[in-house]
# Entry
Amino acid sequence: MAKAFQSPKGTKDILPEEQAYWRMIEQVMEDLTRVFGFQRLNTPIFEDTPLFQRGVGEATDIVEKEMYTFKDKGDHSITLRPEFTAGVMRSYIQHGMASRPTPVKLWSAGPIFRYERPQAGRFRQFHQFNAEALGEQDPVLDFEIMDMAWQFYDRLKFKNLSFQLNSIGCPDCRPQYLKRLKSFYQNHTSTICDDCNKRLDKNLLRLLDCKQDQCQPVIEKAPPIYDHLCDDCLDHFTRLRHYLEAAGRTYTLNHRLVRGLDYYTKTVFEVWAEGIGSQNAVCGGGRYDGLIELLGGKPTPGVGFAAGLERTVMIMQHQNITIPEMRKPAVYFACQHADAQKQALIYITRLRELGIPCLMGLGGRSFKAQFREANRREAAYTVTLGDSELESGSLTIKEMRTGTQEICPLEQLVDHFKTVLNC
Ligand code: HAM
# Structure
């Protein structure tokens, strides 16, 4: 026998049993984005490679190691999107969305691709719910974005979430801070890991979120960025914190939070949860006031977030969050032979037109086997159709939960189910 194929490493099938979680998430996304005034934008799954190189940043892990990049048949370098933000900005610029009333609020959802080392909660194809608000500097928008993330998880009934918040400054104040950070780290080059020694030359901020044990005592003592924020960044951060506090949205100040994408300015945040192994970030985002200009648009501020949906589902399962039941077949028709099936199909068709889910026993199996199947499929009612029913013009309807049976004339069958199933 030929070897059976498996899904590629780092990908997963979303099986029928899991679909109810995804449907619930979709409903919450639709509802929430409407309430917050966001409009949906679908961008292509692949973009020209330079968009991500410039947008996400050459020195990031995503661009250096994780992109699915290939040449298409026309010799163009194409990349499967490793995040939404750069593509959404490209679309905003391309379609002149700056002329729309600001803020322009756009949301998207769909698959994302990163060539990472797979582990619990970390995939090579995963899905994000992404939201971006463009065209305003006001920290009210940072609050709204964070609040939307909050309400997303609140509506999904999550418990024990932790909102991590930081400001990483702007091009005015960050260089000063980085200089300070560099000189601090230069006294610790023999203690820190090899990666951090490399970061000293190319990505200083990422020193702060190194996970290696040997680097932790150094990070603990590193100067926090708050002390170096310029007046504008400090005012922005202070106002955001006031809004969060006024709304009762508790958060943890985390001066180590720097995020893995280069476009952020001022606010950065993450939502952490338990139940997904070491991958505890279920959502992340922040402000990126220079990104649109970097990608060829007019200077336009922006702020947004993305929630990882596989991780969201994993936590829903871990926290035993109840989800609305998948609709089970309401009526199962057990048929004795082909003539009975022919008659049953007339009723099944009419019941389905009314939105009532029906199933019929196939394959000429015995009544016993068909009843067993009705049970396994958790049908609410079983209708028996055989010689005697066809002759008498009446059917037996069994309510599976209680076992009660009743006789119903064939011509009243549809009305009967309309009544008992309230359709
Ligand atoms: P990110 O933090 O790279 O941000 O990703 C957002 C979320 O996607 C993470 O918090 C995590 O839940 C999920 N995620 C990331 N990588 C994986 C993976 N390999 N497997 C499963 N889930 C994963 C961004 O992508 C930014 N574009 C967010 C943003 C939007 N910032 C501003 N606007």
